[in-house]
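Posting this for the archive.
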Amino acid sequence: MKRLLPLTSLAAAVALAASTHALAEAERVINVSLPLGPESQQGIGVLKFGEELERLSDGRLTIEPHYDNALGAEREVIEGMGLGMIDAGIASTGPMGGFVDEFLLFDLPYIFENHEHAYAFLDSEHGEQLAQLAEEQMNVKFLAWMENGFRHNTNSVRPIEHPSDLEGIDHRTQESRVQVDTWEALGANATPMAWTEVYTALQQGVMESQENPLATIYDVNFYEVQDYLNMTQHVYSPAPLMMSLDLFNSFSEEDQAIIMEAAQIALPVQREASQELEQRYLGELEELGMTVTEPDLDPFREAVRPVIEEWSPTVGEELVDAAINFDY
């Protein structure tokens, strides 16, 4: 004869099952911060992530993008994610060296030769180790190693054919000690400045020079306040898509897997879009009146070699060597 559960136990079991099901099926809107707009390389990647997240979760998980630093500058957003105050965001690695020394790798000049070199390194165990450090020391979860791309110099003074052409130019850097040293080694007067202040500083002549990927230069209309575009390709700039680790851990294992899968599907889409935009905007920036210069990069590499030597012990000499010599 089958034993029947007491009515109270049966009711409790039904309630538990119902609440568990409700929890598993809970809808959630994830707020995502972006420094740039929806048509940028960042926007394309984040919107693809949101599209896949919604598809894989049958509409339960969606995103709400917040463009153009609406939730704060990159450093503030990264700190906000670590504190659980901001859900998720895409940001350059520039401010991260202030939290984790190893991330200064991406401020070092002329480490990566091309996109394939950078992708191979980031998609290897080295990228996984850096992501783990971000979890442990920044309390953020890396979802995908998206990118801003290679960075190039613009200025309002003169074309840059040789490092000596930067002599005396007031140049804005990200808030990174390595970047300051790099531009000073190239002869510029380097000053760290928050991203949200850069356009106005260039417009008012407080700063004369800055550096960014081409898509960013176009997206924020730097061609309005800068005359010269110099293809220096001095730094490869990742822009990882991240989430508050506390928020990520609050999801079920099933939803965590969905989040990671959505990000990995979006990753090649974002990288491809970044490269396509780079080529498109090179022509468009020239059409908009910028004078484009393609200098010989060997003198630039030689000029900044002492910066790599000085910072390698801080970043980790093995990590720097692995990046420079990574077989791709």
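The two ends are 68 Å apart (CA to CA). The longest strand covers residues 228-238.
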